[in-house]
Amino acid sequence: MSERIAITGLGIISAIGDNVQQNLASLRAKRSGIGQIKYLETIHKGILPIAEVKHTDEELLQIAGIVEDTGYTRTALLGMIAAKEAFDNSGAKKGDGIRTALISATTVGGMGSTEKFYLDYINPEKTGDFVKYIDSHDCGDSAEKIADNLGIKDFITSINTACSSSANALMLGARLIKHGIVDRVVAGGVDGLTKFTINGFNTLMILDKEYCKPFDKNRTGLTLGEGSGFVVLESLDAAQKAGKQIYCELAGYANTCDAYHQTASSPEGTGAFLSMSSALALSGLKIEDIDYVNVHGTATQINDLSEGNAMIKFFGNKVPKFSSTKGYTGHTLGAAGGIEAVFSALSIHNNIIFPNLNFKDKLDEFDLVPVTDLIENAGVKNVLSNSFGFGGNNTSLIFSKA
Amino acid sequence: MKAYIRGIGQISPQQTFAKDDFLDTVVGYNTNMLFCIDPVYKEFINPLQLRRMSRTLRMGVTAAKICLTDSGIEMPDAVITGTGFGCIEDTEKFLLAMLNNNEQQLTPTAFMQSTHNTISGQVAIMLKCKEYNSTYVNRGFSFETALLDSLMLIAEGNAHKILLGGFDENSVNLHVTTERLGHWKKEKINSLQLLESKTSGTISGEGATFFMLTDKEDVNNYALLKGLSTLYKPENEKEVEQHTIDFLKRNNLSAADIDLVVCGLNGDVRTDGVYYHLRDKLFAETAGAYFKHLCGDYYTSSAFALWLSANAIKKQVVPEAVRLGKSPAAALKNILIVNHYRDINYSFMLVSQC
Amino acid sequence: MDALIVKLKTQIIEQLNLEGVSPDDISPDDSLFGEGLGLDSIDALELIVLLEKNYGLKIENPADGKKIFATIRSIAEYITANGKA
Q1: Exposure winner among A254, A286, B247, C53, fewest CB in 10 A?
Q2: Which DSSP category does A335 fall into?
Q3: Looking at beta carbons, which residues of chain A come within 8 Å of C41?
């Protein structure tokens, strides 16, 4: 159980790029992926900005290398693209005999296709090509398509704990390796944008009509995004012996529950404080070892206040450099923890800290000011990444230079 | 990895929420769409909470409460659930309102409760349980991963009592939609004659089952959960057979040590063959049991099988209604559960006397 | 005003699915949130939609809801002052 876990592969597709290189370039150039709605059919077009992956479903099919569309949803395609990049990047080969797990996370699953054809689905008189999407509604569909695409059979599962989902995927992955159940895990998450999600968050009145402004006094809500982020996890020891490229170590993780409200975090951030504390304890690091916090930072009134309070309680008056990258990618829900795990690994690997876009004024409630410009040679050895979801689900991950 | 089952709560299409009734009487349905028998929810949930809750939330939260009471444990160290489809009624409600009202004048309640982890979150809020909380959503592996996670947590030594749940909800729209894929029988049957139809398709069902798992021995424990394994898209029946042998071997057992095989026969002639293959090759001398004629088929139906097996071990009885083939041995020491969802997600569980 | 109050009570009971509550149980001056009827922030969002749907009134900032939704009477007054009921 004392085994250490390495990250040996990264894969991502988001509003700021189709792969790791493009994402890194956009992060460095302070290039946001948020814009007016282009690909999604909704009445909110022209009113609510979102962070879309800049491709139609047909283009995504091509990028994913699918010849015949037997019912691939946007969610499945985004996941297949990012997971494949991570898998290849780690040097893994299909059928190389290493016991491998695929753990994917998603909140909407195939809803993007369901909402297009649902009225036809439930009308037995209707028939047509839409029938091929019926079996892709549930969350497990994308995980199984990703696994099949990579030839992974040994262990497959999906997680949905709302917006902390894919951080939990990494956590489960590390534990599977430590328990000797598998030797390699492709873990992350994916969510395609849907009308269902936009309208749902809109009813909660937590969508900003401008680009989201994390940790800003005048923030009025989040900006939704889509995408997928995956990493490959292996035993650090085995990866070092095999001379593999190692981005960083997944040194700590913890999941706790705020147990306060279905959608709102507690103002004092109890669950967030507990998840950060437990993750740090597992990593064996000291609190002052944390160099950068990739905050959840959705830019809703409640999240940023609650998370800020939790950080102050946890770090005292020495809150490390922190930023939310949701000004780039939007809030990608089930993909957020995976995408931000890739960003955290890139932060350590390239020794940089990414800026928090759209920040102007700090909150009245505390003195926290995020990093607003790219920092090169930042001396990043340990990164804390937070992901919080509905149901009070709080997950903190700690990445360390191996 | 292992855990004791200390308490259980189950809401299903049978009278399973009453502790003393172990399928003494069973309900047959003349429809291919099974729904749960509702307890009086007001006895379990306060009205202010109840007013917002959809059917699956009521079922899940109530099953969890029954389980907590049954176990005598007030506060678990983790809440972990598995569900294939999540909260169908809330999802459909919001989706239909959105489509029918052209994305206007929508209200938040159904949306915020449509996420798959609503029940694990609600149970945690109800108990003020700030510990580990997770929800798995991978078809016929949903409950299995939740169980595996529980076993790992116990093995890690950080949790000693875990509230584990499996739930899925049926709906008319869901049934009609998936009927297009050939999942359900075209002809109407009586659910209790599920295996006699010899046609393709099965009957749809639902259920909410919660278990309290612990690492402590106790006279009140139902059974010991000794092993769990999953298998994804096996090539053929031979691979399933080999997997079963290896699984038993890892637990230092052979087929001869198994006193009862609880299998997921669902009356679909296209996919039931593998169970008969296992019977013929490995368990010709072993008593059998089946359960999907009682609860229908759904992603997390293996939770029903675990409920059945744990009770059979504790009460040392195999109810008449589930028996298949040879009569069970006088003493039930080891029960093997073999289940698969549409020949894709296979799972194996080993339930033993404490 | 009195007719509007009666109508509002029925609409609120229906929208919020207040099982077992009858219009007579709610006095126009009872506080709806917290100690009174026990409604919460999600109910406030539901009430915003109720006003939009039935009275054509749009509340853009959820924070404004606090004052408007204090009691049945305050809602009725808001509708009378701003709406076309």
Answers
A1: A286
A2: G
A3: 264
Chains interfacing with B (3 or more CB pairs < 8 Å): A, C
Q: CATH number of the domain that C59 lies in?
A: 1.10.1200
Instruction: Specify the CATH architecture of the domain B223-352.
Output: 3-Layer(aba) Sandwich (3.40)
Task: Could you list the beta-strand ranges (E) of B99-188.
Answer: 132-136, 161-168
Interface test with B, best of C32, C49, C58 (most B CBs within 10 A): C49
Local confidence pLDDT in tens for the 354 residues of chain B: 999 999 999 999 999 998 788 999 999 999 999 999 999 999 999 888 899 999 999 999 999 999 999 999 999 999 999 999 999 999 999 999 999 999 999 999 999 999 999 999 999 999 999 999 999 999 999 999 999 999 999 999 989 999 999 999 999 999 999 999 999 999 999 999 999 999 999 999 999 999 999 999 999 999 999 999 999 999 999 999 999 999 999 999 999 999 999 999 999 999 999 999 999 999 999 999 999 999 999 999 999 999 999 999 999 999 999 999 999 988 999 999 999 999 999 999 999 999
Class of domain A5-241: alpha beta
Contact A402, A348 (CB under 8 A): no
Which residues are paired to B199 by β-bridges? Answer: B268
The residue ranges of every structural domain in chain B are 3-214, 223-352
Q: Which residue segment(s) compose the domain that C40 sits in?
A: 2-15+31-82
CA of residue A323 relative to chain centroid, distance: 15
> How close, in Å, is residue A42 to chain C by CA atoms?
19
Q: Which of C18, C20, C42 is opposite residue B108, by nearest beta carbon?
A: C42
CATH of A253-400, one of 3.40.47.10, 3.30.420.10, 3.40.50.720, 3.40.50.300: 3.40.47.10
For the whole prediction, is pTM greater than 0.95?
Answer: yes
CATH superfamily membership of B3-214: Thiolase/Chalcone synthase (3.40.47.10)
CB atoms within 10 A of CB C4: 18
Of A182, A185, A155, A184, which Cα lies nearest the Cα of A170? A185
Active-site residue list of A = 163, 296, 331
Helices (H), A122-235: 140-150, 165-178, 195-203
Q: Judge whether C25 lies within some domain.
A: no
